[in-house]
From TrEMBL:
Keyword Transferase: no
Keywords, comma-separated and alphabetical: Cell membrane, Membrane, Transmembrane, Transmembrane helix
Membrane topology, as annotated: Multi-pass membrane protein
Membrane-crossing segments per the record: 20-40, 72-88, 108-125, 313-333, 339-361
InterPro entries tied to this protein: LptG, LptG/LptF_permease
Gene Ontology BP term (one): transmembrane transport
Main location: membrane
Protein known as: LPS export ABC transporter permease LptG
Cellular localisation: Cell membrane
Length: 365
């Protein structure tokens, strides 16, 4: 049975095909251009490392491209909406559809359906590809584009405390008793917080208790003396579980993994509002694509010969980019507790959903 909310099956498929092909075209163009610009800015740093060459440049591009695709997919949906609707308007196809008895909502329904499919694909792509690429790229950057870590469970730039002392590591790989660190620094501090001794080592592994540093170099602040230490155990009160909780990068964790991380933080009595805001945004972010046909719909209506199509397209673009600005600002407010996590993630979506629906009803329905 044909649902009244959608036009005919042929027209629905026709509009969806136009919309999806334009989304892909705009997304590919944006990702290619931005990847090349980003690669140009980072290529000097990558090639400074001995042994790096074209393979490393391609590896960087392959890790950066998924991040750019995630960021600019909603922009691509917005631009594709404007291109599709302006083209339909200029070819008088919108007038023909309205003359056939279709309402504005029925004309937009195939585009919204396509956007829902795009949002589902975006969520799956973020979970399976973007989080892993982000974790690998950050771990690679933490070693200044040196030999790329091969472990999948990677944490970077970790700081943990043992009383007044601090243990830091550029990267942490593995879990539990098999956890080991790379580029480790141990800061021994006085009770008033002054650094007394600094010990650096290329790696450390869990010694149960403490962390065993090998081939370390010690620097005494008071005497300015440097000595070589074959091995030393530090941080006897620091456990792998504390290292796991030392830092959570929500951009590098999938939705389900982040759920578990938030539970561990709450069990340890740690603040989780920032993590919860990002957790909610992993759902609302992909769904922002569904808003774009509604916000850009103002470009579909009005007579092309009236000369106002360009102005309507600008209004649709302004509404879309206004959403992105407010969404970013609300997420930043949620990061430091200014907004509740749910409001920070879903507030802009619900606000612009009402704005888009109001504009469509007042102008066309």
């Amino acid at each position: 049975m044909q649902l009244d909310f959608f036009p005919s099956r042929t027209l629905t498929l026709y509009l969806m095909r136009l919309f999806v092909t334009r989304i892909l075209a705009v997304l590919v163009m944006l990702v290619l251009v931005l990847t090349m610009l980003d690669l140009l800015s980072e290529s000097g740093t990558i090639l400074q490392v001995s042994g790096n060459g074209q393979a490393q440049l391609l590896a960087y591009a392959s890790l950066r491209a998924p991040q750019l695709a995630k960021t600019f997919l909603p922009y691509s949906v917005l631009l594709a909406t404007l291109i599709t609707l302006v083209t339909l308007n200029q070819n008088s196809e919108v007038v023909s559809m309205k003359a056939a008895g279709l309402s504005a909502h029925q004309i937009l329904a195939p585009l919204v359906l396509a956007a829902v499919v795009v949002a589902g694909f975006s969520f799956a792509f973020n979970e399976r590809v973007v989080t892993r690429a982000t974790a690998t790229l950050k771990a690679w950057q933490s070693v200044n584009y040196g030999p790329m870590p091969k472990d999948s469970a990677i944490k970077s730039n970790i700081y943990t405390s043992d009383g007044t002392n601090i243990l830091s590591a550029a990267t942490v790989l593995g879990t539990g008793n098999a956890m080991h660190m790379q580029n480790v620094t141990w800061y021994k501090r006085s009770p008033d917080g002054m650094i007394q001794q600094q010990i650096r080592a290329p790696g450390a592994r869990y010694a149960a208790p403490g962390w065993l540093l090998t081939n370390a170099t010690s620097f005494e602040v008071q005497s300015a003396a440097t000595t070589e230490i074959p091995s030393i155990v530090v941080g006897t009160d620091i456990t792998p579980q504390q290292v796991d909780l030392a830092r959570i990068d929500p951009d590098s964790e999938s939705f389900w993994h982040l759920t578990q991380s938030i539970s561990r933080y709450e069990a340890a009595g740690r603040r989780t509002s920032e993590l919860k805001a990002v957790w909610w945004h992993k759902l609302s972010g992909p769904l922002s694509s569904v808003l774009m046909p509604l916000l850009g719909s103002v470009a579909a209506f009005g007579l092309a010969r009236s000369g106002q199509v360009f102005m309507r397209a600008l209004i649709g673009m302004a509404l879309g980019f206004g959403f992105f600005v407010i969404d970013t600002a609300a997420l930043a407010m949620g990061d430091f507790g200014g907004y509740p996590p749910f409001l920070a993630a879903w507030g802009p979506f619900l606000l612009f959903l009402m704005i888009g629906e109001t504009v469509l009803i007042r102008t066309e329905e």
